[in-house]
Automatic annotation (TrEMBL):
It catalyses: an organic molecule + reduced [NADPH--hemoprotein reductase] + O2 = an alcohol + oxidized [NADPH--hemoprotein reductase] + H2O + H(+). It comes from Sus scrofa (Pig). Its main location: endoplasmic reticulum. It is a peripheral membrane protein. PANTHER family: CYTOCHROME P450 2B6, CYTOCHROME P450 508A4-RELATED. This is Cytochrome P450. Residues 1-21 form the signal peptide.
Amino acid sequence: MMMFSAILLLIVLIGVFLLWGHPSSQGHLPPGPRPLPFLGNILQMDRKGFLKSFQALRERYGDVFTVYLGPRPVVMICGTEAIREALVDQAEAFSGRGKIAVVEPIFQGYGVIFSNGERWKTLRRFSLATMRDFGLGKRSVEERIQEEAQCLVEELRKSQGALQDPTYYFHSSTANIICSIVFGKRFAYRDPEFLQLLDLLFQTFLLISSFPSQLFELYSAFLKYFPGSHRQIYKNLQQVNAFIGRSVEKHRETLDPSDPRDLIDSYLLRMDKEKSNPNSEFHEQNLILTVLSLFFAGTETTSTTLRYGFLLMLKYPHITERIHKEIDRVIGSHRPPALDDRAKMPYMDAVIHEMQRFGDLIPMGVPHTVTKDTHFRGYLLPKGTEVYPILTSALHDPRYFENPEAFNPDHFLDATGALKKNDAFMPFSIGKRICLGEGLARTELFLFFTTILQNFSVASPVAPEDIDLTPQAVGVGTVPPPYQIQFLPRQRG
């Protein structure tokens, strides 16, 4: 802590010696608090995290305002209407990707999530097409998830109702789905290398969402020379990349051009096809960082939502009971849940929507940039301006959700009990940069959540009214608090 305070003091002293004011950017940015030279709006930043600061500034400046994160201006866009106007109505202009300082040394503008321009368009098209093929017609997504859900049920049965942290189970099952697409295989739940990889991903997500990582976002050019969470994040992701690199080599050695097994095979074939093109985006760096992007996002997002979901089931047992009744009525106990069941299970679907809304996984969105000089709500955002679509401001928009701070599946049900669409529901973001795994994640959430609750009741020694839902961390991501849960086999009819 003393080291942290010393670094902060040093930053302040440097700022004092810099000229007052800030470089005027071309254009006409939205209003915001006056920044200090170099230090930006550090004085307006809440020590509990940037999100609280942005929410307070919104009260003063409205839905669109500018904050200086260190020396650079970032435009904050809040509220359902403003976010939709930017990311949907002006989708192309707002389709650039900004940087997240703590992971920038790893990605450096490569891979499907953090790339821009033609590189991004090429990698996104390839990734979407290959994920749709999903084993190139051998087995459907649904069958893979159903099989993995049964493996998860067997693992939970082995626990014999013991009290435990569910993180490992949800990580393993969701990771195995993306692994089957990308690496062409699933891993045994006790595989030591697999468990190490999952722990690296979990610890990295926690570190990225921590307050030191948020502070690093302001002063990365300076703080990168000092110890901190950014170094651990780099080390963790390099270890994951080393695993991916070894897997790519094994794929090369066993590649059958007439029978590609997974995304890596498909990519290697495309690399070979374009080897004479010096400008091809199909090279090793994009391969490893696209696989890292899919592996990380495909594991953390769904498993974290499931983890929050089951904590909510412990907190609200009457909701769990109603889900059990719907499962028994629609599916029964003698067959596994299928995707076709979702249309007949509006309450379950509403619960999963509300889990995603309440869990608020990426509250500040992943940073965007504008791809050209852009007029927006009377302001002129110069090309390259960073934009944060504050997704939590839509997911908690009181004009769209009657009581946004409460967990209530009725937010997604109409008067007849049918599922209703809500324009403020954007947990995967919206527009051209919407999460490319949205369809996969929605399928996983339904099949995993329904299969577990078909087979188990959940219990905790903590009384429902004493269960605390306060996140462990809120930054780039929202990390639910750790908790213990029992999975108790239900009586089969």
